[in-house]
Every structure is written in C-alpha cells, then in structure tokens.
Design brief:
Length: about 280
C-alpha cells in the first residue's frame, strides 16, 4: 500500500485523481507528523471541497513533545478541524473507528446504510500506510471497484468502512528549504535533497535557535555549544565516524544524526508549535 508522487506531472495526476474521488467520499483523513504538523501538511490540504469532512491525524505522537502535541490537537479543533494524535504502532482507539463508521450514509431511499468511504492522504513517509493498515488490517486485500467511483483507486475494506489508498504527494514547487526540512523527518530522501552534512548542520542550527539542541545532544553526551560544524564534528567523533587519516567523516556523521533524529532515537522533539511554526505564516 502507498505510492509516492514526486514530480509535477505525477502530482497533477494524483491531485486530479483525488479530486475526482472526493465526490464519492464521506471523509478524508489527512495524516501529518506530530513533530511538525504544519510543515507536513498535504499540498492538497487547501483544495478539499466543502462540505467534505477532513480530520487531521497526527502520527508519530510517541516521538513528539507530549504537551506541544496536546496544544496542536486543541489548535486544530479551534480551527474547526477534528484532530487526533496517535502512535500508529499501537491499535487505534475503538472510539475513533466507531466515529468513522458513524459516517455511513444511506445508499438508497430504503435507508440501507453502506460502509463509510474514506481516503487517507498525506506526504510520503508521514504514516499514511500505517494508518490505513490500522483501519483495515495488515493483511487486507483490495476490494473490487465501486460503481460510479474513479477507476484506478485501490480500496481496502475495514470494519464499517472502505478505505482508498492515495499516493503520497510532495509539492516540487515548494521552496528547496522546505524539502530539506522535510528530510529531517524522513519525509524526503536526504541523499536526493542535499549532502548529509549540510542537512545536519542546517538542522542543528535550527535546533540551537529554537532551544532544542541541548536536549537532543544529551542523548549522545555531546555538548550543544559551538557552531553547527563543531557540534557535528563532536557527533562524528562520538559515533566513530572517522576518515582514514583520523579526521571526522562529516557526511557519515550527518547521515547518522539525521537518521537517528528522524527515527526518534534522540528522544522526543517537536520542531514546531502552534505559536512557532517552522515556516512563518503557514496556516493549517
């Protein structure tokens, strides 16, 4: 399950397919990373047609700051969008599944109710496939096409719902800095966006400015003082990422740092809060 759309032509096709699908949906579940809910918003987020309900599901809540995540849930609800935060490695609450099943509309004048039709959308590697699996089961098989619904969409049946698998979409027209920041969360591939040492230095500089570096570096017993370059050198020394001549292999150190950060091995961290987004002025 799950596909990634990277290029403008593919994105346009994915956008068109999803918009055609919207007429047949009862609900959209937009998945975002709890550590950066505005940065990881889908480029489709502003285009979902009203009055189709859109719920925000913040994945990887186990990797984010608990208090800040609670603020995000309140923030989205105050904006009129239902929101939840989950660790998708665990089962979904039954109350959440029942809320989806309750959206099942009557399919005819005889008031025979059909299963709710749901689409799970989001940027790549944000947890979209994990949510789909939690809704329908890891071994679910696609159901047949639904009459009158866009062809080419894979549907999977879950309790009280059928869920459409949609492509993971990144906006290639976004500023390059956005894609580099997404690489901190593994929502883009670091080796495609730029050199690992550059990504790591930018991330360390960001965390220093946000007051986050000391807590993250403490996991490796590496001080957060000095320049990003000096900090990365200490990370490399701590992890044994050395060149044959004895100098620090900054590329290897940068990759190890980004991968550890993205996977949560450096502890809980929230890159943005409702009053301090990574991209100033970005709205849900």
């Amino acid at each position: 399950m799950g596909r990634t759309v990277w290029y403008p032509g593919h994105m346009a096709k994915g956008r068109r397919q999803l918009m055609e699908l919207c007429d047949s949906l009862d609900l959209i579940l937009e998945v975002r990373d709890a550590r950066a809910p505005l940065l990881t918003m889908s480029p489709m987020s502003d285009n979902f047609p009203a009055p189709l309900p859109v719920w925000t599901v913040m994945s990887k809540a186990d990797l984010a700051d608990t208090e800040i995540t609670s603020r995000w849930v309140r923030y989205f609800k105050n904006q009129g969008r239902p929101a939840w935060a989950f660790d998708l490695r665990r089962n979904l609450p039954e109350s959440f599944k029942k809320s989806i099943s309750a959206l099942s509309p009557p399919s005819s004048a005889k008031r025979i109710y059909r299963d709710a039709r749901v689409a799970v959308v989001g940027t790549p590697n944000v947890g979209k496939s994990m949510l789909l699996n939690r809704l329908v089961g890891r071994r679910a098989t696609p159901v047949g096409g639904i009459p009158g619904v866009t062809r080419g969409v894979a549907w999977f049946r879950g309790p009280g719902c059928v869920v459409a698998d949609s492509p993971g979409i990144l906006d290639p027209r976004a500023d390059a800095s956005v894609h580099r920041q997404l690489a901190w969360l593994s929502s883009t591939k670091g080796e495609v966006i730029g050199a690992w040492d550059e990504l790591a230095r930018e991330c360390i500089d960001f965390m220093r400015r946000k007051g986050l570096a000391a807590g993250v570096m403490s996991a490796w017993d590496v001080g957060a003082d000095g320049t990003p370059h000096e900090i990365l050198e200490r990370v490399g020394g701590r992890l044994g990422k050395l060149m044959p001549g004895g100098g620090t292999d900054l590329v290897a150190a940068g990759r190890a740092f980004i991968e550890a950060l993205a996977s949560g091995r450096l502890g809980r961290i929230s890159f943005e809060s409702p009053d301090s987004p990574i991209i100033p002025g970005r709205n849900p």
